[in-house]
Design brief:
Blueprint: E1 6-14, E2 19-28, E3 31-41, H1 48-66, E4 70-74, H2 82-101, E5 105-109, H3 111-119, H4 126-136, H5 145-161, H6 167-171
Parallel strand pairs: 1-4, 4-5
Antiparallel strand pairs: 1-2, 2-3
């Protein structure tokens, strides 16, 4: 049996075009500890391309400052408004680009998977997820909700990747199964 992986850092990101949460979590054997977390607040009145550039620069700085081994990002969900989903997709694309520029593998997790990994059920609200993340990481004060969402994504990645205990497994993106298409 290989030894347990220790001190692997994961950057979790909750993308957005107005507020994007980020959180760095480090595995410490079977436990995890929070290293840092924050929110990139973007000027809602600025053109989208300028907000995306600010997001890119902020995430590049976080990567440079905290040297994560990989990135975990919240996957897109089906939004009620197509325009909002499209903008969220742009922000997520910036996260993927910034990680790729840094040579980091990216794993994506749907919101329901993150909620199940943290709260035991896929219907937990943001406040419940924040409280559970705070308890798991033994945080004295909770960061803003966007940051606790990002920490939850990072914790989800650590819990999923802990099964095969190797640094390569923690940094490797999870393969996606191709969707079956229906032909008539």
């Amino acid at each position: 049996m290989p030894p347990a992986v220790t001190n692997v850092r994961v950057l979790g990101v909750d993308p957005g075009t107005r507020r994007a949460g980020w959180g760095v979590v480090e595995s410490d054997g079977p436990r995890a500890r929070g290293i840092a977390a924050g929110v990139v607040v973007l000027d809602a009145g600025a053109p989208l391309e300028e907000r995306l550039l600010v997001l890119h620069r902020a995430l590049a700085a976080v990567i440079a400052d905290y040297a994560p081994a990989c990135v975990a990002v919240e996957d897109l969900f089906f939004a009620e408004h197509a325009n909002a989903a499209l903008k969220l997709g742009h922000a997520r694309g910036v996260v993927l680009l910034t990680a790729a520029q840094a040579g980091l593998a990216v794993s994506a997790y749907p919101p329901a998977v993150v909620k199940r990994a943290i709260g035991g059920r896929g219907q937990a609200d943001k406040e419940q997820v924040a409280r559970l993340v705070g308890a798991m990481l033994q945080l004295r004060t909770l960061p803003p909700l966007d940051a606790t969402d990002a920490l939850a994504v990072a914790l989800t990645h650590l819990s999923r990747a802990r099964l095969p205990a190797s640094a390569a497994a923690l940094a490797a993106p999870r393969p996606r199964r191709p969707r079956r298409t229906r032909t008539t």
